[in-house]
Amino acid sequence: MASASRLLPPAPIPSVPTFRHASFGAAPRICRLAIPSFRCRASAATAAVGAAAAAPLVLEDRASAVALREFVTLDELRAAVSLRVRTFYEYARETVGAEDHRKALAEREYEALQNRISGKMINFQRVSCINGTVPLLPSLMSAEELCSACKFVEDGEERIVVSSLDLNQCLWLPDELTGKRPGVNESSHTRAYLSNVCVAKELQRNGLGSALVDKSKGLARQWGITDLYVHVAINNEAAQRLYMKCGFVYESEEPAWKARHLGRPRRLLLWLDMRN
């Protein structure tokens, strides 16, 4: 789902935690922003693991309905960022400035994600945004906010981004635990991290999370990645089960003092040997 310095960043928003290295399923936390009478809840990953307020929608024939791929257009990339903002932050609708703050977060993350993908961030050798998208199906019409916020048009067809993650080829993610393999002095950096893994809360338990991770593993192999990592909240057993089902195993965990300093739940670092 914790950020590197950005190239010519937009004006910062006071007291807003960044989320672009958040991991799937971290426990939510409450943060108070430097805006009068305004609060947001930053959940450091997807609502797909948390309890939903309503029963999730069911995707019929998911295999044919969901397209999993690297992003193609900037409109799709913007829709993916919108999904992340609505997943990682919950706003009280009646509070003043909520929509403006949501838009500012989305714009800031959109620019930062473009910088990472284009190679302007020094620590990142290569970054790809992988999305799961579906056509604007009749079964989704009840999820009005999802369809309006995360919609894009491709070849005349309206589609919705329903899941998303970043695959980052780099030695470390800022403010996160660093993987031990293959080693910091390797001339060929074959380590990568998953981040910003999210699934629309309306489509929980449709297998979108595991399908997205599997897709990222395929791309990682194409890149020559030998060691794939992901961070997950230490108290999120559901997310841990998902990753372990996908082949990840425990490597290390964040010390309590660091988690307190960063104002978040402790993280586990999980590792996947891509050579098997």
UniProtKB/TrEMBL annotation:
Provenance organism: Brachypodium distachyon
GO cellular component terms, A-Z: chloroplast
Descriptive protein name: N-acetyltransferase domain-containing protein
Gene name of the encoded protein: LOC100832164
Domain annotation N-acetyltransferase: ranges: 189-275
GO molecular function (one): N-acetyltransferase activity
Superkingdom of this protein's organism: Eukaryota
InterPro entries in the record: Acyl_CoA_acyltransferase, GNAT_dom
